[in-house]
Each structure stands twice: as structure tokens, then as C-alpha cells.
Amino acid sequence: MTHENSQTTSPETEKMTKKEREAACILCGKCVSVCPVYLATKQEELAPKAKQRTIAALKENKQKLHVTDCNKLAEMCVSCGKCAQTCPQGLNFPQQLATMRAKHSGWRQWVWNRWVNQGSVLWPMLSTLSKAAPDSKGKNEASRFVQSIQAMQPPVDIPQYISVAQYDTELANGQSVLLFSGCTANRVQKSWKQKSEAILTNLGYQLVSAKGLTCCGLTLDHAGVPDAAHKSRMQNLRAWRAAERPLLVTFCATCYLGLAEYAHDDSLDWAEGEQEAWTNALRPLSTLWGDSLFTVDVPANLFIRYHQPCHWHGKDADFTWLKEVLYDEVSKPDSASCCGMGGIAQLGNRKLTRKVATRCWDNLLQQPPKKDDSVPCYSKPMGNCLCDLYDEEDEDAPELCDAVTPEYLIVTGCSGCTLQLRGTAPEHSGKKVKVGHWLDILAP
Questions:
Q1: What gap in Å lies between CA 28 and CA 12, rounded to an integer?
Q2: Alpha-carbon distance 165 to 235, whole Å?
Q3: Which residue has the higher pLDDT, 148 or 419?
Q4: Could you tell me which residues come within 8 angstroms of residue 296 by beta carbon, excluding any fewer than 6 positions away?
Q5: How many helices (H) and strands (E) does the chain have?
Q6: Span of 83-92, 232-241, 414-423 with lowest mean pLDDT
Q7: Residues 358, 335: Cα–Cα separation, whole Å
Q8: Start-to-end CA span in the chain (Å)
Q9: What whole-number distance in Å separates Cα of residue 87 and Cα of residue 32?
């Protein structure tokens, strides 16, 4: 049955209408509940759905779409991708911003491209020079920049709480492995690469030369430098082919995501069946242990807190392995918080990335359940430490507090997250805090 006022439309029009409808933001608000920028600022106009409306408005008035508008909008996003993971319409706001940045590029794209692609000399040089800089305690931008550069220095104060007692070599079966270490490990955190090579060798894998590997391209893509990102992807693909398509292993969540996205990029010159082979070859390092055995020695006063990188998108192989090894010695906040790294956002809106980082630290430093009631300082009659029952000058006071002062060790499985957390660690939290990659606490 039809109505008199019904109108017929051509199949082409119906198809276009459906396409536009499916691609439109329906303002459901699911992105708001996960967006770290909104959660840190509580500003509705910074939520992804509001930015989607802004993009739509700019598209309708293309004469208003210029580099200033794009930069202002782009600076309000840390490219974590959480909104894309929750959007029922399949909208990918960070990718929309990347496209917008690319069409209206400015000095930030120029700087970021060189920071990533020409950092083999610059990063180590800045890291070395930062050793001579005084400890940065200020809150001005110059002090915070020094803090970020100092975060590149390898840690010297993180004990190796996990040791490998026995390697399971059954899983490896002599397979060839190409280790993708990433920019950070290749340039300033070389112990990560060295430990990973030792782990893979001890597990029985055959390491092949990583010559030719470069940046995974993910941050270049998010920054709006697609040509440089494509060049990096092609270079890595050719290096994998030259190594005869072995397993491709990485220990960085961002690198893993960047490499995983290759298989969805049809602009790469894939041979038949190669995209599937690439996907099957890509592995996180933490999934290769098999039935290896470990010894653990964690002090009673140490809380190991795990920061979940956004780029794992909830499927975190690193925490799964750490939990199996450390059991109750490691915990993570009830809800994952973005560290605020944001890639190119560091150039445009460091104030915002700091706000996001502050919220992340608030979650990380919430004290988890006490580990051991037998430790006097954690037994709290009437809400106080047992040591508080004594005066400071009392000769009979137990010397316990200094021995069991709670300390926090934040570990993660992402190179960028590690540097960001080190560079934003709270200075006056009243807690002793250290930050490292999970490789830092491992003795292979």
C-alpha cells in the first residue's frame, strides 16, 4: 500500500542517502564515555561527537576550511582511537583529522616528519645533552620540554624483578624472526632491543637482519604526512620480503597497531596472499614465551601498576603475560586511561596532553588492595600505621617505615607511553614513582 504523498526516488538517490546516513554521526554519545580529552576536561565541545559536527559544518562551508581551523581542531585530539572503537557508525575521527591535516598541512607536519624520520642523530643527542640539564621542576613550557627530553634517558634505577628460569624452546622450532624494535628502542632505549634479541635467541628463534626497517608510519599518518607514512610502510614491507617473510615480532603496542594496519592498506604493492601472510606473521613479543618458567622477587612495599596503551584497543597481550607471571604483584586501574602522548599533539597543545596525563596518573596512583597484612606498616588499626603509634623520638619505635615505604612502579608495553609517563610523572605526589617498559624489569 502506498500513500498519495509518497515520493519515488531513484536507486542511485536511495543508495547515496543510505551511504550518507550510515556515515553520519547519530550523536549517541558513546564516544564521550571513552574520549580521554573529554574525560580530562569535561568540556562537551571537545568530545568527538562535537568535533564531528564541526567537521560537517566546515565541509558545508569549504571556504571556511583553512589551515588555522584545521590546526585548532586537530590540537584537541590525542589520536588514541578509542572513539573509533566504540562508534556504532564506524566513524574514525582520528583518521578524519589526519586527512584534514594532510590537506591543510603547516609547520607541525614539517617538524614531525623530520622528528620521526631524521631522529637517529637528534634523539640520542638531545638525550645526552639533557643529562647536563638541572632537574626540571617548573611548570612552564621550557621546563616541561626538558622533562620530556630527560625521559628519553634509559632508566638506571629499576631493578629486574622477573628472571627467566627456563626457556620453552618448543614453540620456536627454529623459526626465523624479524624483530621490529621501533624508533624509540633503536635510538634511545637500546636495552629493549638487546633484551628482546636475547629473549628470542634463548627461545630458539633464528634472528634475521633487521636492516632496512624504519618507522612503522602510524604517527606519521596521524600527523597528516601520508606520503612519508606510505614510504615507511613500503620500506618495511620490502625488508620483510627480503628476509623471506619470517615472523614479525614487536614489543611496542603502537608499532604493533601501525604494522597491523598494513594489511588494510591496498595502496601497498601486495602480491597475492601477502596481506594474509603479513597478518599471520605479526606477533607481540609477550606471546612467544610458551611454557617458559620465571622467578619473581618483588619487595613487599612495591606496587607494580600497569598502564594499558590505547593502541592495544583492549586486547592487551602484555598485561595477560605479566598477570600470569606476577599474579597479584601487578594490577591496573579499573578503567584504562590515555597517557596523553598524542604524537603531533605534543607540538600543538601540550597543555591539553598534560591534562590527559594528569588524569591517567590519578588513576594509576590509586592505591590497590594491600598486598600483605603481615607487613606492620600496612596493618592499620584505627586507620593508622602501626609505626604511627610511636613518637618519632621513641627509642622503642620499630624501624619499619623506611623499609616499607610504599613505592609505585608503572610499567607498560608501548614505547611512546613509557616516555610520556616518564616525562609527566608527578613531582609532589608524596609517593615514590618510577616508570619503565616491562622489558626494564626483566632479566633475560
A1: 28
A2: 38
A3: 419
A4: 161, 162, 163, 325, 326, 329
A5: 19, 11
A6: 83-92
A7: 15
A8: 74
A9: 10
Q: Which residues pair with 162 in a beta bridge?
A: 296, 442
Per-residue pLDDT band at 71 (split at 50, 70, 90): low
Phi, psi for 245 (deg, rounded to 5): 55, 55
* 223: in domain: yes
Closest CA to 421 of 310, 312, 303, 339: 339
Q: How does pLDDT run across 272-305, given as a tens digit for each residue?
A: 999 999 999 999 999 999 999 999 999 988 899 9
Q: Establish if 327 belongs to a structural domain.
A: yes
Residue 126 domain-assigned (yes or no): no
**pLDDT of 175 over the 60 cut:** yes
Q: What is the pLDDT of residue 273?
A: 95
Q: Is residue 65 assigned to a domain?
A: yes
> What angle (nearest 5°) sits at the alpha carbon of residue 91, between those of residues 89 and 93?
150
Count of domains observed in the chain: 3
Tracing cell 627509642 back to the chain, one arrives at 395
Q: Are 283 and 300 in a shared domain?
A: no
Task: Collect all residues with Cβ–Cβ distance below 8 Å to 279 and sequence separation of at least 6.
Answer: 260, 263
CB 240 within 8 A of CB 248: yes
- Between helix 350-364 and helix 415-424 the angle, nearest 10°, is 90
CB count in 10 Å sphere of residue 114:
12
The rounded distance, in Å, linking the Cα atoms of 148 and 156 is: 17
Query: Do residues 149 and 217 make contact, with C-beta atoms less than 8 angstroms apart?
Result: no
pLDDT tier at 23 (50, 70, 90 boundaries)?
A: low
The number of residues in the chain equals: 444
Select from 253, 287, 321 the last residue of a domain. 287
Residues 240, 178 share a domain: yes
Write out the residue range of the structural domain in which residue 420 sits.
Answer: 293-390+400-443
Q: Residue 84: what are its φ and ψ, rounded to 5°?
A: -65, -30
Give the angle subtended at the CA of 260 by the CAs of 257 and 265, to the nearest 5°: 115
CA distance 171 to 324: 18
User: 136-170 burial by CB neighbour count: b if 16+ within 10 A, else e?
Assistant: beeeeeeebbbbbbbbbbebeeeeebbebeebeee
Radius of gyration of the chain (CA): 25
